[in-house]
Task: inverse folding
C-alpha cells in the first residue's frame, strides 16, 4: 500500500463520523460533495482520500452509507477492540481514563499504572492503580496493543522502553519529549500547549 | 504572507522547544541538521519551514540560538500573554485548567465557566467556577483572546456563538462537533479518539 499521510488518516476518521451521523438521520447514500461540505474540504479531496483504498461509490449515485462505513472502520483498524494501558495517574491521565469516546471506538483502558505509592492501590473509574514496576510482567500475561503515556518527561523514555520490550506496538504520548522507539512502533504525540500555539500563530498572523 | 500549513506551524513550535533545550545546554548556535535530527525531519525541511519568514542563519555557521528563538516566539505570537477562558468544568476541563505547559507559554486560564449549579461557585485551581450565563457580560469587561471549549456536543455551538459575539478570536474545541464560526475566528479541534485512530490505522496497515 502507498504511504498514507496522517492528514489523510485524520480526514478518514472524520468521514467515518459524518457517515455515522448520516446513518443516524436515516440516509442510505451520501455524495462526496456532502462529505466534503461537512469536513470543510472538496469533493475532489474526498474522492482522492478514498481512492487510496480501492473503488467506492457510483458516479451519480454516491456512496452507500453502510458500505463505506464498514470499509472505513476496516481501513482505520476499528473492526476489533484494543486493550489499552495508561501510565501516569495524574489529572490528564484521570480525564483520559474516563473519556467516553475511547470505549465507543473499541479502545478499552484496562489498566492504569503509576509509581507514586500514594496512588498505587487507589481506585480509578473501577480500576485499581497498579505499580509501574510490574508493568513488564503484567503485559506478558495481558498482551496489550496500545499504551497512553502521561508521565513526566523524565520518566517517559524508560517507561516507553519497557512498553516496547513488552510488545506494545503503539503509544499515544502526552509527555513533552520525543520518544525513541523502533521503527515498527507507532508513536503519536499530543501536546496541548502546541495546540494553543497554532491559535496564537493564527492570531499573530491575521 | 503566504498561507502557512498547520504542519509547518507545528514544526515551528517543535523547533522552538528544541532551541530552548539547546540554550539550556549552553549552545549558542545550532545547524539545520541538528534541528532536523531532533524533529525527525530533514535539513531541507527545516530550511524551507524557516524560509517562509525571511532569512536566518549563515551557511556553515548555523543559526544563532537566541536570535532564532526570539524570531520563532515572534512568529508564533508568543511575545505576549493571552487571557484564556475555559468553558466546561468537567474532568478534561479540570485537567486543562491546571496544565502547567499553558502558563509557561503565556496562556493564562483566567476564568472557568459551567452551567451546572452544583459546580458554579466552587473553587478550581484558585478560580471560582462562574455561571456560563454571565460569559457575554464578563467578556465585555474582560477582553479575551482565546477560549477553550470543553462542553458536551449539544451545548458547544451556542457557547461558541456567544464567545464569537463577545470578541473571542480563537477557540480550542474539545467538543466532538464541527463549530460554525466566522472566517476571522480560528478554531482548532482536538479529539482524543481521533488521535487513537491514527494509531489503530498504523496497527491495521503495517
Result:
Amino acid at each position: 500500500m502507498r504511504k498514507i499521510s496522517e492528514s489523510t488518516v485524520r480526514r478518514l476518521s472524520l468521514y467515518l463520523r459524518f457517515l455515522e451521523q448520516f446513518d443516524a438521520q436515516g440516509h442510505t447514500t451520501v455524495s462526496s460533495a456532502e462529505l466534503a461540505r461537512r469536513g470543510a474540504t472538496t469533493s475532489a479531496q474526498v474522492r482522492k482520500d478514498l481512492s487510496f483504498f480501492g473503488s467506492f461509490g457510483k458516479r451519480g449515485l454516491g456512496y452507500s452509507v453502510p458500505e463505506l462505513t464498514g470499509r472505513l472502520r476496516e481501513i482505520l483498524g476499528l473492526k476489533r477492540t484494543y486493550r489499552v494501558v495508561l501510565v501516569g495517574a495524574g489529572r490528564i491521565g484521570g480525564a483520559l481514563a474516563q473519556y467516553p469516546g475511547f470505549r465507543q471506538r473499541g479502545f478499552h483502558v484496562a489498566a492504569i499504572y503509576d509509581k507514586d505509592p500514594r496512588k498505587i492501590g487507589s481506585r480509578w473509574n473501577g480500576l485499581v492503580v497498579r505499580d509501574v514496576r510490574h508493568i513488564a510482567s503484567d503485559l506478558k500475561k495481558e498482551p496489550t496493543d496500545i499504551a497512553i503515556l502521561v508521565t513526566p518527561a523524565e520518566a517517559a523514555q524508560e517507561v516507553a522502553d519497557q512498553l516496547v520490550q513488552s510488545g506494545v506496538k503503539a503509544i499515544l504520548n502526552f509527555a513533552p519529549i520525543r520518544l525513541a522507539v523502533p521503527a515498527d512502533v507507532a508513536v503519536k504525540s499530543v501536546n496541548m500547549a502546541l495546540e494553543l500555539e497554532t491559535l496564537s500563530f493564527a492570531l499573530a498572523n491575521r
